[in-house]
Every structure is written in structure tokens, then in C-alpha cells.
């Protein structure tokens, strides 16, 4: 029966051979992949499909009834709200929406 040192030496030898064979086969596989990409003209998106990160759309907090413009409250304030009391331009979120109520066609928001 082989000793512990002999078994460890065999194991190290096998690990080394496994790594060599893996490297060789990986190089061959990569060359094959590159050849197929060139042959068929695959794009990066086709080979590695990904979805672009979707930007979250922020709801508007302020609305100007005169111009019909809105603002989320982020970034530099627009001219129509600059230096004014913002509370009068806030979009109120109702507890219910009366769909039969008359609408202002300039206002893109369902709340009147």
C-alpha cells in the first residue's frame, strides 16, 4: 500500500496535468469560438446577451398650468418655478379620481 507522501506526490502530479490539459482545451475552445464568431458575424449582444439598465422614471411633483410644463423636483429648478412658492405648483395625489370630471387638455396629468 502506498504511503501518504507517495499519494500526495501523485495527487500533485495529477493536479498539474489536469491544469495543463484544461489550459490546452480552453485555448482550443476559445479559438473555435472566435472562428465561429468570425464565420457567422455574431455581435457581442448575440454572444453575451444583456439588458441595458432601465432608468426609473421619476413622477413629476410640480406642474405649471400656464405653460403645461412639469418638474420632478430634482435638479435645477425651471424658470417658471424659480423664486416662487412651490406649494402652489404641487401636484396633489387624490384618494380617488373622478373620470367624469372635465379635463384641462393642456394638463398631461389626470388629476385636476
Plain-language structure description:
The protein is mostly helical. It has two domains: 4-47; 51-112, no CATH class. 37% of the residues lie in helices and 4% in strands. It contains two helices and two strands. It has helices spanning 4-40, 44-47, and strands at residues 62-63, 70-71. The protein has a two-stranded antiparallel ribbon with strand order 1-2. It is elongated, with a radius of gyration of 33 Å.
What is the count of helical runs?
A: 2
DSSP, total strands: 2
Query: What is the typical, i.e. mean, pLDDT?
Result: 87
Protein structure class: mainly alpha
Major sheet description: 2 strands, antiparallel
Distance between the termini: 90 Å
Query: How many individual domains?
Result: 2
Name the beta content range.
Answer: under 5%
Q: List the helices and strands in order.
A: HHEE
Descriptive terms for the model:
single chain, 112 residues, mainly alpha, 2 domains, two-stranded antiparallel ribbon
